[in-house]
Amino acid sequence: MKCAVCGTGRVILKRMKNQEPVCKECFLRCFEDEVYEAIVQSNLFKKKEIVAIGASGGKDSTCLIHVLHTINQRYQMELDLRLVAVDEGIAGYRNHSLNCVEENAKIYGLPLTIISFKELFGYTMDEINAVVGEKKSKCTHCGVFRRKALDIGCEKIGAEIIALGHNADDIAETVLMNLFRGDVGRLERTCEIRSGSDITPDLLTKLQEEMKSHPAMVEYVDQRQYPFGLTPKVKPFKYAYQREIVLYVHYLQLKYFSVECTYAPVSFRGYARQFLLKSQAIDSSIIMNIVHSGERMKLMPQFANRAGDKSIMKLCTRCGFVSSQHLCQSCLLLDQLIRDDPAHPQNIDCIARSAHVLSNPLPDIEDTGG
Amino acid sequence: MKLTLTLHAGLESLFNQQKKLELALDDSITPVSLIPWIRDNLLSGDPKQQLVVDDAIRPGILYMINDADWTLVDADSPLNDGDEIALISTIHGG
Ligand code: SF4
Ligand SMILES: [Zn+2]
Ligand SMILES: [Zn+2]
Prior knowledge:
Chain A: GO terms for molecular function: nucleotidyltransferase activity. The complex is a heterodimer of chains A (370) and B (94). Chain A is α/β, with parallel strands linked by helices. Chain A has a domain at 31-196 and 231-312: Rossmann fold (3-Layer(aba) Sandwich). Helices cover 48% and strands 9% of the residues of chain A. Chain B is an alpha+beta fold and 94 residues long. Chain B has helices at residues 31-42, 47-51, and strands spanning 2-8, 20-24, 52-53, 56-57, 61-65, 68-69, 84-89. In chain B, the strands form 2 sheets. A 5-stranded mixed β-sheet of chain B has the order 2-1-7-5-6, with no helix packed on it. In chain B, strands 3-4 form a two-stranded antiparallel ribbon. In chain B, β3 and β4 form a beta hairpin.
């Protein structure tokens, strides 16, 4: 059996999408070109644009950095690629994975900005763990704070778009989880290759108006097209299979970190994942079938409203991030933490902290304890 | 026959953190029989089920022989001296 692309190479795998046998060189090249095609087809980036890449040190983001860097040069995309990483403060996990990110930044010569929870919120995840207790899941705090940190990171480097390493398997998993939980309101957003299709121009104008009279936001009105919290996220790996990402990274011997987070729960997601892995063994097209199904599902209007009416979005009265309530989730969680924390760290002023983190160069923020 | 076995993406944790092992095997070992052999001779306790399910490699773990997916080689003819086996988890991290 010879490679179906070049006709001569030694076959090393069959492609997930069509079972075509390919050699190593053709696989690597096809994988890169397919990501490029997805980017072009969905018009994800503009020439000269500053593009933040969310870097975690894991296989997906490591692969994304390599592929974007490669096709940026091959196809003269002229993107200004920069890495943004979040340091949640999880000892034994994030510090090691950040070493990988730092190495990659050096290898590709891409500038790296690290935003830490401690700096931004006054707490590391390890400290949050101590406050909320071993038994409760930490992932809500982590996820909400990470989204905010990524947006701040983008602002810091002047990017109004961020590329994330979510792959087809991740998306299929999330679709299944939404179905399992009856959380159908999220289905449409889950499958988007670019976030924000549900943000109408009217809503954007309304939010921009609000920025003008918001004390924490007024200085950004002229600099930003999107309010904080709505920085577009794109998924260039939407059509890439996890299996092929792992192989790509393996063949090129890219450095990545693969240890599970200390706080990773025995989750629902794990259940969905096992189910998908087993199904995939029977039929490899299952992943993409789920992604395509998710893409085509649209909520009937009477349910769409209930599931998440975007028109009620406003700015968090405190920090100015987009929110559906007076206070955004991040500010609410932080208030709750401070209430529950016997050590009562004084003056966690998230606006001052954001401003601090955003001002260049980074000054040291005095440790307020906690 | 002698083979090398390398472990990637967290699987080394099932093998006492060893990333590379040299294996000396019976000449009749095939790609199919290698997997239960690894389970019975190299693993003990929980790692057995974490690597092998129903005598085959667990779904979500890639099994490569000389860089090629194992399903591409003849499953029932013996492995060759010097073959490089790699096991790679696709499940962890991200
Ligand atoms: S598993 Fe760890 S890194 Fe992931 S969301 Fe939970 S606490 Fe954060
Ligand atoms: Zn080829
Ligand atoms: Zn807020």
